[in-house]
Amino acid sequence: LDIWLGILGLTRQDIIIDNIVKCFTNNNRSPVPCEVYFCRDRFLPSVFGLYQPAVVFILGQCACQGIFDRNFSVTTNLGRIFNYKFYGRNIHLIPLYHPGYCLRNPSSKQKMEVILQNLKDFVESKVVHV
């Protein structure tokens, strides 16, 4: 994650890290859709309202399906910028691989670095550094 942030010209002080599902699942299993939707509907509005992000990177298949749609494919939409209207404010949602996925699939690491390099100017134009 720190390497990805470096490519974008960001540090951990510039970002907020949050999970779509707020509780741990048994045996570290992937959350089922009803768990994802419950947490999304209950917590996401307050997180977006509190932090008012300009750009949100959505990391991994589970988070992307929770935000977009059950049939959403990270691979198909990797690095694509989606515009989301939240209480009159524009938020740019960008699906990316989860860092853990890249650790398990080294070929995806290089692909991510290219995508992040392509997103760098866009992110720099939207993010206020702390």
Automatic annotation (TrEMBL):
Residues 6-119 form the Uracil-DNA glycosylase-like domain. Keywords: 4Fe-4S, DNA damage, DNA repair, Hydrolase, Iron, Iron-sulfur, Metal-binding. One of its GO terms (molecular function) is deaminated base DNA N-glycosylase activity. The keyword Iron applies. SUPFAM superfamilies: Uracil-DNA glycosylase-like. The keyword Electron transport does not apply. Gene3D superfamilies: Uracil-DNA glycosylase-like domain. InterPro entries: UDG_Type-4/5, Uracil-DNA_glycosylase-like, Uracil-DNA_glycosylase-like_sf. GO terms for biological process: DNA repair. PANTHER family: TYPE-4 URACIL-DNA GLYCOSYLASE, TYPE-5 URACIL-DNA GLYCOSYLASE. This is Uracil-DNA glycosylase-like domain-containing protein. The lineage of its organism: unclassified sequences, metagenomes, ecological metagenomes.
